[in-house]
């Protein structure tokens, strides 16, 4: 290429302008930026919003003399990396959508930004161009940067300094009553804000109950209450106070104190509060966090208030929002889903305000109807049902748009009484608990692993804030890295709903047959888990009775699929009466359902020609009115695979050729009515009214985000010749579930079918007939 010609002009400084002369053939110029800016003007970037730390926030750009935001359409971690480096951080750890840090103001400068990740500035990335956007500020993008600065990075224009001088990142209540200091959660005290490595107070001049409501919501409490200021006035007059905030004017609907108009102490100003005192608040805890008052009833983490509940969350106070209508649970679409609406849900459930309004089914996809769309709460409503919303049509929303929340939860200190040691990551290890001896001395100790299983591990992972229990381990010799060797807990038995291991049952005195440290309990935790749900309508639609000859049941007898009386039958003559049905099991969680055992320990069954990956996967039972079993299906150890999946999801698991077994998220495993052991042997059952019960993963052998929906029940009437099934519903649904099948009884004559789809491939294909009766 021709050598560049440089002309230097010296005034007070030297500016060199270099050009490259062209030859006969034009040289190739670099591709222009989609968002060109004069090179003399450097793009300013800042982080803003609430609640946030210094390394996270809503992204704002300074262009044409005005601050504006970036739309979250097509936003990615590559975009976040470019922005974080531009802000002086080494990289990004995440990004946020849907205005997590609050709605910005002014222009939305960029939309559909597509970076490769290596650009020096966000303006070098592809986009629709400056100021060209079809978004609202509900879609403002944010970033979370790694809290590590680029060495030598010096640019005062990158982070807008005035955003950091007067900000409120952390708020606490300081209890002044001696007995209250030892109890958690702290519900009343002096309001303090983090300031210069210490804590400062807020002057209460002009303080209102609306300010109290915001503070209580931040700290995880749904309600506020009046406080006795006279008591605190006497105490605070003797204390030295430092007033960093002099005025707070909340409306009561904000989710963070930083969102309220605040007046901070001016530089070189006085730190007094003439005519006032330090702000004091009192909060009302939700039902889960009420003081026990000596009651033996243990608080549980499952929360449902009237007609709203959270499902699929890894931690307390988070999950997919589900609402109850006409006795059936359904979900909420995420269109226009925001923090005020999420806060109404959180407070309704006994938590504080919302930390995050989550979209895109990030807490798993629900099943059944979607009841609400474009919910528009103001923030002061008592229930989400009091907020304006649109009804759903089938074209509006899919379950891929299910809304979720992450709520502020009171600090209970449970995580300080348990720890993991020896693991390769912070999500695994031997469980050690802090216990007090008879002298009141605390030392760390181990838990006997003899009774330790998934339920107990679930509580441990929840207490640690590490999500779900992937596995509960009874031996941890491979994690022997601690000098703690004493067993301090044994016989631990949890329901799985407790907030801490201290709320579970255990021996009063330690009794452990295998007391060596290598037999101590351990866990492997995970942020995600599967969630299996049975398709109840399919059971109801496919049920029938078959009298099956004994000579066709040798394999089934070998796998213990018949009742005990079959052993006394005159083989191969005679028959067994079988209650048959299809079962379709969906995985609606956020992780694949996979057998606990590796394929090296799967059992080959020659009769049926496949490997069984789980000893117990499903129980089929027929119960009488008082819950006693009158007939029992086999404890099914099926081959797990993806029979089919929802649109856009690919199958991963197939049993053929010793393939991997499991059920992918968004897929289902179908066990047709005509396969062996897909039945209950009712040969010995007398005519009467019964309950058909099906339970998936009954021993909680594999971790799930929700075990309450693993059971299905149907009302059943048997007259000795025919079977009636009605009102099939999953465990938490009401007895009048399935509005579209309500009052439908499927009456099926023995060997009498007309629906060919139910009989294809069976010995009854040529002769089966079907009858359906609808009763008023």
From TrEMBL:
Q: Which GO terms describe its cellular component?
A: extracellular space; membrane
What EC number(s) does its UniProt record assign?
A: 1.4.3.13
One GO MF term attached to the UniProt entry: copper ion binding
What does UniProt list as this organism's lineage? Answer: Eukaryota, Metazoa, Chordata, Craniata, Vertebrata
Gene Ontology terms: biological process: collagen fibril organization
The protein's name: Lysyl oxidase homolog
Instruction: State the disulfide connectivity.
Output: 71-135, 84-145, 115-125, 250-260, 333-397, 346-407, 377-387, 494-504
Establish whether keyword DNA-binding is in the entry.
Answer: no
Q: What class of enzyme is it?
A: oxidoreductase
Task: Supply the source organism for this entry.
Answer: Scophthalmus maximus
Segments forming domain SRCR: 45-146, 173-284, 308-408, 418-526
